[in-house]
Inverse folding.
């Protein structure tokens, strides 16, 4: 499965395929990217290149062999192209003539073998030391649930329409509205791994907003919730308490609809930041 001639193992095919798929799934689940780097050395063996790489990789990075003896590869989890370039800059400060290709991965259908062939071909055709490949696939849309909790039906509808009309490239919104906290919690709407934006009045029938906030933040996967509280009480103490309880934003009623839309766009923008 792996050669371990130093402190960091070098994985061989076909095992690297399974590792690639697992790391890709973990990165996409966390709404992040991962990077694959292939390095080809002109005047040294792959084993010598791997020895250099061991001094640079993190414990979470994965070294692997390809089907060429003069190549080694690296998988950088939760990383992007800029991190990969910095990694190669450190590598190239060492002795040795090397070329490399970088591929940032953010689509579930990206295949290890097809990516490797593209990178090997790019290295062979390249005049420069580093080639950054296009992904060939657009980032898949992120499905985001939106819940609006307010006792006033007309106000719920206005906020729902305002959010639905926002320009949110890369994000597909699924919007539901609720008139009270208990109906929301019992609806099953919160049960999924999707990111979930909750726009919630602090005073609600049956179960008030602060109680709902506490229940959401007590869930084991509470990190998927982004919570914007609304209130008619312009109290510094109330706002402080809401933030300390886990609110991500606060609006005092009545508020300007454009201000509300700006808050929503800012919160949604965090998803792929």
């Amino acid at each position: 499965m792996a050669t371990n001639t130093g402190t960091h193992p070098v994985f061989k095919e076909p095992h690297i395929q399974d590792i690639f798929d697992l790391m890709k799934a973990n990165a996409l689940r966390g709404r992040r990217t991962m990077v694959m780097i292939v390095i080809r050395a002109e005047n040294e063996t792959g084993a010598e290149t791997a020895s250099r790489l061991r001094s640079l990789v993190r414990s979470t990075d994965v070294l692997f062999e390809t089907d060429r003896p003069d190549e080694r590869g690296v998988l950088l989890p939760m990383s992007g192209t800029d991190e990969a370039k910095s990694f190669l800059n450190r590598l190239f400060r060492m002795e040795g003539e090397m070329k490399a290709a970088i591929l940032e991965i953010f689509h579930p259908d990206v295949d290890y073998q097809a990516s490797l062939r593209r990178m090997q071909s790019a290295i062979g055709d390249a005049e420069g030391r580093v080639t950054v490949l296009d992904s060939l696939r657009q980032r898949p849309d992120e499905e985001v649930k939106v819940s609006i909790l307010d006792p006033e039906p007309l106000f719920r509808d206005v906020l729902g329409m305002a959010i639905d009309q926002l320009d949110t490239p890369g994000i597909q919104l699924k919007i539901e509205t609720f008139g009270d906290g208990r109906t929301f919690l019992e609806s099953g709407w919160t049960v999924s791994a999707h990111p979930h934006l909750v726009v919630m009045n602090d005073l609600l029938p049956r179960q008030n907003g602060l109680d709902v906030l506490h229940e959401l933040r007590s869930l084991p996967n509470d990190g998927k919730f982004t919570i914007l509280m609304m209130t008619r009480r312009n109290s510094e103490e109330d706002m402080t308490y809401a933030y300390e309880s886990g609110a991500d934003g606060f609006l005092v009623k009545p508020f300007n609809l454009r201000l509300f839309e700006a808050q929503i766009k800012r919160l949604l923008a965090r998803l792929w930041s």
Q: What stands out?
A: The mean pLDDT is 88. DSSP finds nine helices and twelve strands in the chain. The first helix runs from residue 15 to 29.
